[in-house]
Amino acid sequence: ESYSYLKPNDKVTILSCSPILKTVCNVQKISKVLESFDVFESKFTDVEFNSPNINVVVCDVDSVDVENKIVKTDKGGFSFDYLSICSGAKPNVIKSSNNFIGIRDTDSILDLKDRLENSKRILIVGNGGIALELVHEIKGCEIVWSIKDKHIGNAFFDKDASNFLFKSKQEQKEKQDSNDNDSEIMIKENNNTGTISNSSVYKNESGSALGPQWYSKYNFNQNQMVDSVNANLNIEYETIVTEIYDNDDSKESNNFINQQNFKNESEKKWPIYAKLNNGNVYGCDFIISATGVIPNSNVLLKNRKPSEHVALSKENALVVSEQMETSIKDIYAAGDVCSVEWNDSKVWFQMRLWSQARIMGRYAAQCIAKQSVKGTKDEDNLEEICTSFEFELFAHATKFFGFKVIMLGLYNGQGLDLSNQEQYQIYTREILGEQYVKVILENGKLIGSLLIGNTDLEETFENLILNHIDLSRYGPEILNPEIDIEDYFD
Ligand SMILES: Cc1cc2nc3c(=O)[nH]c(=O)nc-3n(C[C@H](O)[C@H](O)[C@H](O)COP(=O)(O)OP(=O)(O)OC[C@H]3O[C@@H](n4cnc5c(N)ncnc54)[C@H](O)[C@@H]3O)c2cc1C
Ligand SMILES: NC(=O)c1ccc[n+]([C@@H]2O[C@H](COP(=O)([O-])OP(=O)(O)OC[C@H]3O[C@@H](n4cnc5c(N)ncnc54)[C@H](O)[C@@H]3O)[C@@H](O)[C@H]2O)c1
Predict the structure, then answer these.
(1) Is 111 in the same domain as 21?
(2) Which terminus of the chain has a smaller tally of CB atoms within 10 A, N or C?
(3) Which residues does the UniProt record annotate as the domain FAD/NAD(P)-binding (predicted)?
(4) pTM, whole model, 2 decimals?
(5) 195 or 126: whose pLDDT is higher?
(6) For the ranges 223-227, 332-336, 337-341, which has the lowest average pLDDT?
(7) Residue 263, phi-psi category: left (phi > 0), alpha (psi -120 to 50), beta (remainder)
(8) Average pLDDT taken over every residue of the chain
(9) Best substitution site from 101, 105, 130 to test ligand 2's pocket, by max atoms within 8 Å of Cβ?
(10) CB of 108 sitting under 6 A from ligand 2
């Protein structure tokens, strides 16, 4: 849509193995760089694009004939002048087995819901966004949660913020707050949007990633009477899974099960067993691997000639230039599949998030449009719909454990030596169950902030980071709730 907006007469073809398109609606600017929005799913056939020149083909993309500029699919070849690869990523599932699942698209969630119906114990491996959401949402069955770290949510939070969330979650349990706003939202969304499968119609490819607040549409609480916190959550800190056995009557699995000192026979009947490096063994109904993603870069890698060098990051993402172009001319990439290494803003870093995929998509469209008119009379007339300003500050708004969470800049001191106390100051403010605020200053200038709960500080802190204002003289007073920090900078 961005490309068609800029060049309405050009033909745009979307090749997707999922018949569902995710669209962003109700975009609200929270601040200069932060947006909140709803994600809706619609069938391609129901979507009215802003241009009649946009055409969708549901097909399985196999590979790209770079030399002849043809995308090869099961529905034939599609030639292109410019190609943008936006094939996302797939879950990095640590073992392939029927009793081991990853979460990515609607199908994977429907499968999870089905499995939970009859489950008594599950194991969740991984300590990022998906695991946090699942642990909060799944009730009514025992959860063993294996995390490599000393605190929960390491992919997003440091120890203090994680403790705040965890303790606040426990406090919620104590309060047994039955007027949970979340569940009201859940009911409304359920009625309004329903569930459409965004899965791929091709078995070997997954559909598009679920994205923000996906869980508000699904209820994982089999037993409605269970309170808002899972009483049966057993966190195995600082552990990794070392052995996994399906209970498939094989020699290995029988040996493994018989070696365990299970107290009763029923313990020998779980569908799958996992052994952790602390020696603990858990039998469970199934295991969820919430262990990050692997970029779907394969379409560009398959059948390529040795001369066609594709630059890849260490996690196999397509490295893009400042114009979002891959190392192959006229082939661009955006979203989870790409790796942005050109950005020299100190307070931006890539995370595979919907918010970043959206910006990258728009920016890639603009870069392609610019390239397509380069050297022509239209060059000066092309509108700017996106600037590199959107890559200047890392900004993410989300929700964990029912709390609004805003992350700005190097909110965890990413890549910094925070032990250097002369250079870096960290101040925090915490009201348990309500809000947690952290700021990181480098030589007196704000470079990152984490806001949990309704703090109303996002706009002010964003400005302070972007304007490089020296705050040294305020010290910890910067977080004094009695002081309206905005007044200082009017
Ligand atoms: C459970 C979950 C929760 C999340 N929650 C959040 C959140 O709260 N906030 C946030 O910012 N981000 C969140 N994310 C991350 C976010 O969803 C992704 O970063 C974002 O969707 C990436 O967009 P994308 O367009 O690059 O990839 P995708 O959305 O995955 O889209 C890729 C598309 O390419 C298609 N495709 C792939 N291979 C082929 C092929 N060979 N042929 C044809 N089509 C193909 C797929 O079917 C899919 O439609 C979440 C992700 C998950 C899995
Ligand atoms: N609210 C949000 O913003 C949100 C919510 C869910 C998911 N997401 C995004 O969706 C994507 C997928 O989420 P995710 O939770 O799978 O990934 P993630 O990157 O958030 O977290 C991956 C976790 O798995 C752990 N891990 C990796 N390999 C492991 C292994 N072999 N054994 C044990 N642990 C291992 C990592 O230490 C990390 O804790 C990510 O890009 C994430 O940012 C975002």
Answers:
(1) no
(2) C
(3) 1-165, 269-358
(4) 0.90
(5) 126
(6) 223-227
(7) alpha
(8) 87
(9) 130
(10) no
Are 4 and 23 a contacting pair, CB within 8 Å? no
Residue 140 has pLDDT above 70, yes or no: yes
Tokens of 220: 């994982």
Token pair in block for residue 31: 């601040």
Residue nearest to atom 20 of ligand 1 (CA): 354
Mean pLDDT, rounded, for 46-56 = 85
Name the pLDDT band for 203 (thresholds 50, 70, 90): low
Q: What are phi and psi of 290, to 5 degrees?
A: -110, 65
Determine the structural domain holding residue 229 and report its residue range.
93-289
Number of domains in the chain: 3
List the beta bridge partners of residue 241. 276
Is residue 324 within 8 A of residue 332, CB to CB? The reply is yes
Query: For residues 132 and 162, what is the distance between their CA atoms, to the nearest angstrom?
Result: 11
- Mark whether 150 and 272 lie in a shared domain: yes
pLDDT digits (tens, 9 = 90+) for 262-294: 888 889 999 999 999 999 999 999 999 999 999
Q: Do 178 and 302 belong to one domain?
A: no
Nearest ligand to the CA of 136 is: 2
Domain shared by 324 and 434, yes or no: no
Render pLDDT for 364-390 as a digit per residue (tens, 0 to 9).
Answer: 999 999 999 999 999 999 999 888 778
Measured from the CA of 94, which atom of ligand 2 is nearest?
31
